[in-house]
């Protein structure tokens, strides 16, 4: 879909840091989204599906990316949106939802209890029964197909670096990206530490999901050293500490690099703190993945 994005080297508190600028790959299907959706779309076409169905909140990067790729591929799309308070007031829709609508996505707002149950909820079942051949993509686009796409993308990054990184850092929501990064590091034979930075509190079940996707991806995969850092969620999803806000603004001014306010401001802030704490040291060569998300707002 897009040309290879650059890996920029920046000097950061005495450490040379590689930044993979995947925020530059596409304005809508941006960053990790392109790679997570790639094999889902291929599978949908192979199955002869006519509608992509997925789930997300009112600001979901994944929802709008799915709407866009469906339209481009000549498929219909249905987005199940968390919360029914916006059902009858289109004028209060987020820019994300408006874009989904523009890209032809049918939006169905469900209450939070139904949303938690996803396709097990009666409401969603009813919606699915009304479709000819739906292809369901989980919330955030995270599944084994996403792991394949992200791992392939990681393998392309190898050619852009002159040595293996010491650390690879990315933000974590539903975990498909981190799983793909772990798989890609294995395929690249990088003996590095992979650090996923949780953007919400209490991501316990995500570890299990990641392990399941990784064993489905490749049973023989020797899992590199990976962890989810739970310290820098900033108080919860879409919440930021004043320090994080100040960091994001300063970072943009110093490096001319915008950070989105949900995901990347937290992973970049985490790396800043890990450098200050001496966890990442001056002789290390960390690689941080800018996963995009700019459509949801810049810090
Ligand atoms: C911009 C951005 N970065 C990172 C993530 C986290 O990815 P994952 O849900 O695969 O953990 C998301 C959400 O999917 C995202 O939109």
Protein model, in words:
The strands form two sheets. This protein has a six-stranded mixed sheet, sandwiched between helices. A four-stranded parallel sheet has the order 5-4-3-6, sandwiched between helices. The chain is globular, with a radius of gyration of 19 Å. By secondary structure, the chain is of the alpha/beta class. The mean pLDDT is 95. Helix 7 (176-187) links the parallel strand 7 and strand 8. The protein has ten helices and ten strands. The chain is 39% helix and 19% strand. The chain has two domains: 7-28 and 144-296, Rossmann fold (3-Layer(aba) Sandwich); 50-132, Rossmann fold, CATH 3.40.50.1100. The site of pyridoxal-5'-phosphate has 19 residues, from helix 2, strand 7 and helix 7.
Topology:
Elements: E1 7-12, E2 15-21, H1 32-46, E3 51-56, H2 61-72, E4 76-82, H3 95-102, E5 105-110, H4 112-117, H5 122-129, E6 134-136, H6 144-158, E7 167-172, H7 176-187, E8 193-198, H8 204-217, E9 225-229, H9 242-255, H10 264-276, E10 286-290
Parallel strand pairs: 2-10, 3-4, 3-6, 4-5, 7-8, 7-10, 8-9
Antiparallel strand pairs: 1-2
Helix pairs in contact: 1-2, 1-6, 2-3, 6-7, 6-8, 7-8, 9-10
The structure holds pyridoxal-5'-phosphate.
